[in-house]
Design a protein that fits this description.
- The chain is built from twelve helices and 18 strands.
- By secondary structure, it is α/β, with parallel strands linked by helices.
- Helix 1 packs parallel to helix 8.
- Bound molecules: flavin-adenine dinucleotide and uridine-5'-diphosphate (UDP).
- The site of flavin-adenine dinucleotide (FAD) has 34 residues, from helix 1, helix 11 and helix 12.
- Flavin-adenine dinucleotide (FAD) binds next to helix 1, helix 11 and helix 12.
Length: 372
Amino acid sequence: MESSNINLVVGAGFSGAVIANLIATELNEEVLVIDKKDHIAGNCYDYRDKNGIMIHKYGSHIFHTKSEKVWNYLKQFTDFNTYMHKVVGILDGIETHIPFNFNTLYDVFPQTLAQRLEQKLLDIFEINSKVPILEFQKQDDDDLKFLANYVYEKIFLHYTTKQWGVSPEEVDGAVTARVPVYLSKDNRYFQDKYQGIPLDGYTKVVERILDHKNIKIKLNTDYKDLRDKCFKRVFYTGPIDEFYNYKFGQLPYRSVYFKFETYDKEYYQSNACVNYPCNYDFTRIHEYKYYLDDKSDKTVIAKEYSEFFELGKNERYYPIPNDENTKLYEKYLEEAKKAENIYFLGRLGDYKYYDMDKAILRAIELFEEIKK
Ligand code: FAD
Ligand code: UDP
């Protein structure tokens, strides 16, 4: 199938699948999609195990978006349940809500203190506002200073150090701002209008996105085996530094790994995701059967651990946003702008901390540019 009339898409995750689908359906052109893994769906890959429980192999994936465009695009391929994600964490031995909100306040402090803090917070902040922890720490009032230090220490300091290997001040503010202090009684992790889990799982969604007569898929295939071949366009969702043979140096990533355990009981914990900001060396425990309300007398959990990415040792999971890495990425981006008919996208191609919806939107918008 390789020839100059054919488009090559490197990577069969959401980014690659969506761009392949749009080229195949709207331009009626042929597309070869390759992935070096032995499955499609990239980091969103899921499968039902022998107990009938849907396992997210590379960590829990909860779909959420404000974008009607992304939602309508995905709805062509799947229905979603009405799951709204909540996270609890263990703070001082108490299981309570994360992000820190007014309910957390009343869970961890005596009522009179909680009432005083709530009133002071409402004097300063709008109800339902979201305040990043690094902002929240800028308080003059002694009570609120105490509260900010509590939240920083109990929720952010140790979790962030485990997750990123550095303190919250040393990671980009946008990362910790994903989990703000929320001046609300809303216990949900996301407030997006659209959220849920695809009823048949993510792998099925990607399979349907790729199911088109113009699309051919080759798994266990690395781009380096095809790089001398000629294609009409190449869409590259792998790491941009690898594409350029690391000529400016390696872009750093965090990696994660999961320890899976099966238990002979219906549930292991009270919630799909329990964070352990202050205890243990893992960051959180996922219990998969909650996502699609799977019924089984067994349950499967995964403890999530974080470490630096090292070439040849583990996988890239999280780009590390900071000024130095952005500058390095921009050198590659300059190089990419000179290349003809090669387009970089996705979490690895753009070196951006995309959630699924942002990766999908990026692919749709890139297609709209190309179509012009
Ligand atoms: P990927 O899924 O990484 O796909 C890239 C593909 O390219 C891979 O399959 C890879 O094998 C392939 N590839 C790379 N190099 C080559 C090569 N040289 N040759 C051939 N193939 C190659 N998002 C949410 O919205 N909600 C969540 O709850 C959520 N949870 C997450 C939890 C974790 C632990 C992680 C790491 C991410 C999470 N995300 C979540 C983000 C989500 O995984 C990404 O947005 C999404 O996977 C991006 O898709 P992608 O196609 O850009 O990248
Ligand atoms: N975070 C934290 N404590 C928590 C939850 C999150 O310190 O209990 C910080 C941490 O730095 C984390 C970031 O907030 O990397 C973003 O959290 P999120 O849950 O969005 O991360 P993801 O699900 O993408 O790993």
